[in-house]
Amino acid sequence: MTQKTVRHILDTIGELYPDAHCELNHSNPFELTIAVLLSAQCTDETVNKVTKDLFEKYKRPEDYLAVPLEELEQDIRRIGLFRNKASHIHKLCQLLLDKFGGEIPEKHEQLVELPGVGRKTANVVVSNAFGVPAIAVDTHVERVSKRLGLVGWDDSVLEVEKKLMKKVPREEWTLTHHRLIFFGRYHCKAQNPNCTLCPLLDNCREGKKRMKPKPTRKTITNK
């Protein structure tokens, strides 16, 4: 894929979603980290409903540790995998107090030390909370990137991230991450992508396949 084609894809998605942003509600790096941790295999909409009350009750790491694990589980039970996530939050808060002075660290390599925080979560936190350019690859980013041919069909999540970082200008990494998510969430959906109205159909391997006319079956009549 040429750089001109990459530029065309980025600009087209940018025109569709110029104001793309992180849709997880938060007011500080700590809340963002908790919200992203909760969002694994769960919609941002559901997470925001849960964190509306959660962030009123728990302000600091100490607050989460002050209640039994079972109580926290009940507070987030609408979230998928809530027991595992409650356990991660407890352990994360304890580590923050033991090692980082109760504050979310700004460095990527320190963030991934936190329980429940993987590479994707760390990328979201450094880019949205601390302004460090990063591309977090979630299901939407991966799906859209593969359909549009920005990366290979068989590329791993890490390979997708590395290839996008090479093709997208560094100063656009964070914004591109958000725009790819919006494009995948609201237009190029997993099950029912809006191929008929897609301005990038010519670039989309999946779209061309879906829009290809199906051969009609000829009926044989006996004379």
UniProtKB/TrEMBL annotation:
Cofactor(s) for this UniProt protein: [4Fe-4S] cluster
Keyword annotations of the record: 4Fe-4S, DNA damage, DNA repair, DNA-binding, Endonuclease, Glycosidase, Hydrolase, Iron, Iron-sulfur, Lyase, Metal-binding, Nuclease
Free-text cofactor note: Binds 1 [4Fe-4S] cluster.
Biological process according to GO: base-excision repair, AP site formation
PANTHER family for the chain: A/G-SPECIFIC ADENINE GLYCOSYLASE/ENDONUCLEASE III, ENDONUCLEASE III
Function: DNA repair enzyme that has both DNA N-glycosylase activity and AP-lyase activity. The DNA N-glycosylase activity releases various damaged pyrimidines from DNA by cleaving the N-glycosidic bond, leaving an AP (apurinic/apyrimidinic) site. The AP-lyase activity cleaves the phosphodiester bond 3' to the AP site by a beta-elimination, leaving a 3'-terminal unsaturated sugar and a product with a terminal 5'-phosphate.
Protein name, entry field: Endonuclease III
Species, as recorded: Paenibacillus pectinilyticus
Lineage: Bacteria, Bacillati, Bacillota, Bacilli, Bacillales
Gene of this entry: nth
